[in-house]
Write a structure and sequence with these properties.
The chain has about 120 residues and is an alpha+beta fold. It has one helix spanning about 85-110; strands at about 1-10, 10-20, 40, 45, 50-60, 70-75, 80. The chain contains 1 helix and 7 strands; from the N terminus they run βββββββα. Strands 3, 4, 5, 6 and 7 form a 5-stranded antiparallel β-sheet that branches. Strands 1-2 form a two-stranded antiparallel sheet. A hairpin with a 3-residue loop joins β1 (about 1-10) and β2 (about 10-20).
Length: about 120
C-alpha cells in the first residue's frame, strides 16, 4: 500500500494509505475526510452499447454514516455489498440469465420457429 496526500475541508492536508488497486485521486475534490473513497476499476455488464450493471471494489475507510472497515463491492444502485452478498447477487444474476433463455425459447415457440 502506498500513500497519498489529499486536502480536506475539515482536516486540511491529510496523508492516507492508498491500496494498490485504487485508481487514484487525481483531480478529485475531497470535501471531508469521511468522503474519501478508494475505487478500483469497474466490471461492467454491457449489451448493445447500454451499460446494464457496473461493480467495483470500493473502500471508504473514514466513512461515518456507513463505516467500511474493509473494502466492499460497490454495485450501482445497490450500494456497498459484503463479499457474501455479492455472491448472492452473482447467483441471482445467473438464475436470471436462465430465465432470459427460457423467455427467448418461449418467444420462439410462440412465433412457431427456432433459430
Amino acid at each position: 500500500m502506498g500513500s497519498i496526500i489529499l486536502r480536506t475541508l475539515d482536516r486540511g492536508e491529510v496523508t492516507i494509505g492508498e491500496p494498490e488497486w485504487c485508481l487514484g485521486h487525481e483531480g478529485e475534490r475531497v470535501g471531508y475526510l469521511a468522503d474519501i473513497t478508494h475505487n478500483g476499476p469497474a466490471t461492467v455488464l454491457e449489451f448493445d452499447g447500454v451499460e446494464l450493471l457496473s461493480a467495483r471494489i470500493s473502500w471508504a475507510p473514514f466513512a461515518k454514516l456507513q463505516p467500511e472497515p474493509y473494502p466492499v463491492a460497490s454495485v450501482d444502485e445497490l450500494g456497498s455489498l459484503e463479499p457474501g452478498r455479492l455472491r448472492e447477487l452473482a447467483a441471482a444474476t445467473a438464475l436470471y440469465a436462465g430465465d432470459l433463455y427460457r423467455l427467448a425459447n418461449e418467444a420462439e415457440r410462440l412465433r412457431g420457429y427456432r433459430s
